[in-house]
Amino acid sequence: MSAFLIKYIIAVFTLWVISSNHDELYYPKIYHFFITSLIIAVTGILMSRIPLVTQTIWMNTTYYVFVAALAIFLISFFLPNSYVTLHGAFFTASIVGLLELIIYLVVRRHRKLTNGE
Questions:
Q1: What is the pLDDT along the chain (117 residues), one digit of tens a residue?
Q2: pTM value > 0.85
Q3: Which residues are within 8 A (CB) of 89 and not within 5 positions of it... i.e. 6 or more apart?
Q4: Exposed (0-12), middle (13-18) or buried (19+): which is 47, by Cβ within 10 Å?
Q5: Contact between residue 36 and residue 27 where contact means Cβ atoms under 8 Å apart
């Protein structure tokens, strides 16, 4: 549950910042951020069920970026008055993927330090 909340908060904050500063991603209503972030967080949790090996972390992050970009782009068709280009979706998904990769690496390092591995 905590992984879901972390993914959700990161996605909401990232969508809000990028929508405020980037012309190719526009959500006019505040609930658009929450709906899109919910879908991104759910896909992130489902993608994290794939077993991770140290050598496949970049491949999993790349898959996550593509799935999140597709989700951001496709959900914009269902949200009224939202404007998302493919470039904006990939830019946002790459930022979200990079932030989640950094959090994953920090958590993994913390586990190694606390478990003594």
A1: 777 888 898 889 988 998 888 888 888 888 999 999 999 888 888 877 776 665 677 777 888 889 889 999 999 899 999 999 999 999 999 998 888 888 878 877 777 767 765
A2: no
A3: 25, 69, 70, 72, 73, 76
A4: middle
A5: yes
